[in-house]
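WARN no homologs supplied; continuing
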Amino acid sequence: MQIYKNLGGNSNVSAFELGDNYIDVQFNGGAIYRYSYMSAGVLKVDEMKRLALQGYGLNSYIMRNVRMDYESKR
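OK structure emitted
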């Protein structure tokens, strides 16, 4: 997992991992959610990947656009 930069300073996202067709997002409580092309759609997952690498806006995007569109939770 790669540490999320959290440039805004108030994100609930702590880390992420990028795959070819998914992104795993770890939240501060430790839960890891997988958002895949199949569960959330290509455009949304690609935007999440961009925001994750940017280090800003990922938590807000998830809450507004893909909150329940995860494939699995670990």
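The first helix runs from residue 37 to 40.
OK
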